[in-house]
Amino acid sequence: MAASLLKTSSMSLRTKLLHQTGLSLYNTSHGFHEEEVKKKLQQFPGGSIDLQKEDNGIGILTLNNPSKRNAFSGVMMLQLLERVIELENWTEGKGLIVRGAKNTFSSGSDLNAVKALGTPEANFL
Questions:
Q1: What is the pTM for the complete model shown?
Q2: Phi and psi dihedrals of 72, rounded to 5?
């Protein structure tokens, strides 16, 4: 089982084991279901999470949504999860710099996405 998990994709071993056993990265005891959360977050596009891996083992993670002062959109939240998984598997990695594009770190989350996720219609609260 472990050998097949390691060959299947670039996911971290922890993530592969969670998927293999049917568990989720999200805690369903609070009413969150991974696929529902991802589907809802995908409705809020804009920006990107960019990752550069340098030969010296230093990664540079850039929050790239300068028109909104690098606020996290729903898509960016999903991309952050993907980049973290990628970094978990980067065996040459030694350190990480997190920065924002265009001289602004981040103003937080896009409030439109936060409002939508917090409404009763979203069924997440």
A1: 0.70
A2: -75, 120
- CA-to-CA distance for 77 and 56, rounded, in angstroms? 27
Is the separation of the CB atoms in 112 and 74 below 8 Å?
no
Residue 22 lies in a domain: no
Q: Is 97 helix (H, G, I), strand (E, B) or coil?
A: strand
- Token digits of residue 63: 């929050």
CATH number for the domain that contains residue 99: 3.30.300.220
> Tokens 């993907």 — which residue?
82
For 57, list phi and psi in degrees, rounded to 5: 90, 5
Tell me the sheet residues that pair with 56: none
Query: Count of domains in the chain?
Result: 1
Domain hosting residue 112, numbered range: 34-118
Residues 49 and 84: their CA atoms lie apart, in Å, by 10
pLDDT digits (tens, 9 = 90+) for 85-106: 999 999 999 999 999 999 999 9
Residue 105 lies in a domain: yes
Nearest CA-CA partner of 49 in 14, 79, 21, 78: 79
